[in-house]
Amino acid sequence: MSGKSNDGKTVTSNGEKVYTQEDLAKVLSKAKLYKTLYEEADKQVNLLNERLKTCTDNNLMLANDILDRIITLENEHTTYRTEQAVLKERMSLVVEQLDMEKSQWKDTADKLQHHLEGSKSGTANSLQDQQHAEDNKGVSSFVVGGLHGLRKLYNAPKLDPAQLIRNVLYDIWVPCKNVKISIADKTANEARDRQKARAMIITMQTGQQKKETIQKFKRYLLHWGIEETSVEDYFPSQLLPRAKQLRKHAADLKKAGRIHGYRVLNVQGAVVLQTCKEGEEYVSMDDSQIDLGGLQHQVAD
Question: In sequence order, what E strands does 138-282 have?
Answer without folding.
Answer: 141-145, 180-183, 199-203, 230-233, 261-267, 270-276
